[in-house]
Amino acid sequence: KDLIFKSFYETEIANIFNINIIQGILDYYQDAYYGKVKINIDNVYYYLEVNYIKLLDKKNELMGVLINFKDITEKTKLEEFLIRKDKMESLGFLLLNVAHELRNPLTSIKNFTELMPEHIDEEEFRESLLYHVPKQVDYINKLVSNLLEYSKPKEAELTTINVKQFFDNELLSLFYKLIKAEKNITFCIDIAEEFSIIADPNQLKQVLINLIQNASDSIKESGIIKIYSFENKDTKVIVIEDDGEPIAESDLSKVFDPFFTTKPSGTGLGLFICYQLIKENNGNIEITNIQNGTKVSLIFNNKGEM
């Protein structure tokens, strides 16, 4: 009753729905949008599923924006419970492996310390100690850093990202810094100017840096890393292809498992964390072998779910 004859922008409803999306439809920037919103009423959180649709008259001229919404609080809470349950199971699996992963370098360090009283005067022993112990310490440090990264809260701050601008402004210079000086790697990027996705920029950057690092590591001396995008009715996809050494077919099903790695100094947590981050962004990640290398696809919802 209090809303009748009032402008939409003068009501509290305007604080619930995304004004930028509404304005985008009014300005013919987009036709429709689907998303979710979280609202606080008397310190109780509710979740709404929202559809923004262009409203046309008989002459097919724009009259306004039609907003449909429904309460999906119970459904969302159930989904969050299942996600938490899945995370706890993943964490349990992680903890089972942490002891094993830490024991190997610690055993190596322990062996050196026990041998020091008898062999410290030997030059060969000292050289071996100075080579191996820092290396094992670096491995432990990397492992702990990755575990801390996984343990941080991962609630994504979703926003619209123009992927072409994101690459040009945020990532390209970083990519070249990842490549070792002795390698000759060329980037071929083909992303449409208007291609955009809904994601957390920082988490997307972390995923892409990790994937580019993997692509670079798979190339021995010289090669090409292709980055391109495409979309269809349901999905938007960012693809990273390299012409380096492909992943063994027997390993493809294990690449997202925690602690699985084929790298001498790898912790096996990089792709595991990438998988978790992409899931937090309502997306999916797929890795396949192609004729001359490896293909990674980051798949996002094309409905603009937020």
Regions with little confidence, pLDDT below 50 for 5+ residues: none
Give the radius of gyration: 25 Å
Q: What is the averaged pLDDT score?
A: 82
Instruction: Classify the helix fraction into a percent range.
Output: 40-55%
CATH architecture of the largest domain: 2-Layer Sandwich
In the CATH hierarchy, what is the class of the largest domain?
Alpha Beta
Strand order in the sheet with the most strands: 5-7-8-10-9
Number of helices: 6
Structural class: alpha+beta
CATH topology of the largest domain: Heat Shock Protein 90
Distance between the termini: 30 Å
Descriptive report:
The protein is built from 6 helices and 10 strands; from the N terminus they run αβββααβαββαββαββ. The two termini are 30 Å apart. With 306 residues, it is of the alpha+beta class. The mean pLDDT is 82. It folds into 3 domains: 64 residues, no CATH class; 76 residues, Orthogonal Bundle (Helix Hairpins), CATH 1.10.287; 143 residues, Histidine kinase-like ATPase, C-terminal domain (Heat Shock Protein 90). The protein is elongated and about 90 Å long. 42% of the residues lie in helices and 27% in strands. The protein has a 5-stranded mixed sheet with strand order 5-7-8-10-9, covered by helices on one side. Strands 1-2-3 form a 3-stranded antiparallel sheet. It has a two-stranded antiparallel ribbon with strand order 4-6. The longest helix is centred in the first third of the chain and has 47 residues.
